[in-house]
Amino acid sequence: xxxxxVDKTEKKRTILQAAMxxxxxKGFAKAKMNDIALEAxxxxxxxxxxxxxxxxxFINAFHFFIGDMEAEFNKILARDMNPKEKLVAIIKAxxxxxxxxxxxxxxxxxxxxxxxxxxxxxAMEDVxxxxxxxxxxRQIIMDILEEGIRCGMFREIDTQTTASLLFGCLDGIMLQxxxxxxxxxxxxxxxxxxxxxxxxLTKHKxx
Amino acid sequence: xxxxxVDKTEKKRTILQAAMxxxxxKGFAKAKMNDIALEAxxxxxxxxxxxxxxxxxFINAFHFFIGDMEAEFNKILARDMNPKEKLVAIIKAxxxxxxxxxxxxxxxxxxxxxxxxxxxxxAMEDVxxxxxxxxxxRQIIMDILEEGIRCGMFREIDTQTTASLLFGCLDGIMLQxxxxxxxxxxxxxxxxxxxxxxxxLTKHKxx
Amino acid sequence: xxxxxVDKTEKKRTILQAAMxxxxxKGFAKAKMNDIALEAxxxxxxxxxxxxxxxxxFINAFHFFIGDMEAEFNKILARDMNPKEKLVAIIKAxxxxxxxxxxxxxxxxxxxxxxxxxxxxxAMEDVxxxxxxxxxxRQIIMDILEEGIRCGMFREIDTQTTASLLFGCLDGIMLQxxxxxxxxxxxxxxxxxxxxxxxxLTKHKxx
Amino acid sequence: xxxxxVDKTEKKRTILQAAMxxxxxKGFAKAKMNDIALEAxxxxxxxxxxxxxxxxxFINAFHFFIGDMEAEFNKILARDMNPKEKLVAIIKAxxxxxxxxxxxxxxxxxxxxxxxxxxxxxAMEDVxxxxxxxxxxRQIIMDILEEGIRCGMFREIDTQTTASLLFGCLDGIMLQxxxxxxxxxxxxxxxxxxxxxxxxLTKHKxx
DNA sequence: GATGAATGAGGATTCATTCAT
DNA sequence: GATGAATGAATCCTCATTCAT
Lengths: 207, 207, 207, 207
Known about the structure:
Chain A is mainly alpha-helical. In chain A, 72% of the residues lie in helices and 0% in strands.
């Protein structure tokens, strides 16, 4: 009765990962559906059994990419750590998440580029809202900063701006790594970034 | 002598600025030559009198965009300031440069996205080498940092990584501004960024 | 003996009727094999157990549609009626046959459209010869007209052309009904058509 | 200043006529844009300078085809003739119009087929309303019939149904001609059709 | 110099058909 | 026998680029 049994979810992920590789390699615009099919080792037409369009693949890739990071952050927030430790953990988690994405790092650029254009235009607002994602992550950092100020661990700073800067710094350093891996030591970057922000934020009793 | 006097350079810039507006609005891939022609108020074919191809326009736009910043930085370096002041000036100049680009902010994403892809591929290496541009700017910051350490103003830090982080932070915060201008106060960002880095780098005598 | 007894003929008809519904609804070109499978409540692949191709389904549908009408006409010809009565009976039978086709009326257009193209091309000539079908039906009408002339009931007319016109009129009125059912009263049409032709053909003794 | 001067309207017609030829030969669905381009002796892309899509070509072809007939009919109605003469003139004009369409006769089938489907669906209602076209032409015939009855030239008949039948007969006979030109003498058909209807409709004084 | 009409290579998408289960 | 996942040929349409005027 039931013919060929296929794990749709499994195959969908296979295609998605193939697509992400190709996007990372060529960028969204230059990535051909055929490239994705070849990378996935399937026929061109098969992709359309799992995704309605090239755009849909992109959006799915975005959510796939974001998903992990979100889970990771929530785990950190739930842990029993002081604000400074949380901040360091968030920084470390972001770097880890970036590396677990493996080849797909370059795809970040397309997420950004597409996200920026979308926010200026009308459609897709709901499915591909990079602005919201950023707000959410900034809020997480802001919460930690405010907690630190409340408990007297951090000095009084503009939490919103500082959160933006920290988050921006994470983005920016990854960008440089993607662009020029030989020049950026990511371990050092993780440590130094944590160092700079915690040093600067820490309230010195004696002063 | 010449029947029609046209300032080639002037018109080239007109086209370039039109192109940058369109790129910023739609992204490189979705920007049509016709859009650029319309924006520039000229005929489609005329563009080809000034640029060999769409790619060439992009590369020219890139250099146009970079050019100002480079000049600005050199001016700062030549000025008679201490390292801390220079750092603050560089940060300020970067923000200013970004705003002077006006509408064109969004184009940064395409520069980045294209630049990243190009560095992984072969062609264009010479004409569109984003990697080199970044190395150059990082070097400028590194030089300031090292000068600061030498003269005992900054503590001993990993200058290369710190330069990367500072420069990354500048990129990252602009990205967020482009994406969500209502959320990011650029003046505060400029001040806070300078504050965080100088505070953190400053060598405290008593310790 | 056989593990599963399936009435091949029965299922073939099921598929055929499903196909006819879909053809009527969407036209041959826009009808998808999947639509037919869904309408028939079977799997897409199953259709190919009964028909070699989409074209074959169409041809079979055509013959299925024609089959009834042919039987009906032969019955009329065999009956003991005068030519005028036979003509009226043929007209009535055609209308009835059209309505018995139910939803499938619209499919006539595709039969016509396809038939016309096929006759101008080479292939299918044998399996799908609309020209022959028309010739046959015209001949039936011609025979009745000639019989009427022979027995002095009809005046001397161009039987071939008159047969074409009568048959054309039947086609044409159905077309209008399909297009705009609210505007065409098919009962009135049947009566009026019979009236016009018999009135016009009848030989008036006194003149 | 002004480059290549092209009569857009003229070229549009050229493409339209090429398209009509191809539609007539292959049917709408099987006609490729490339076929039309080849027939028109231009490049594939050029078509899109004049028509937005294949559908638009079809709709334009429809209006082009209808246009002439409408003008012709209005001329007849304006002439000083009695109803019987008008009827004959309308019949003749329809046949003439059909032949002036030359090769394009076969395209009628696609108009019909498409028109029928459209009336069952939603879109295009306004641009491609075959129902309205038929209503208009039936009305023209009805008006003539009613005028004939009023002036005592025609007997009292169901004008709406008779108009449908006459118009249907015109369609139907053309269909047969397209299908099997060797079998249908269009001159005879024109004459016989006029004969049958006028004979049948004429009020005989002595009765 | 300027133009925009013409072009055709290129790519997303559709869908009849196949075939492993 | 029945199925539907997989396939790729086929096709519409886009758009950078050319070139006659």
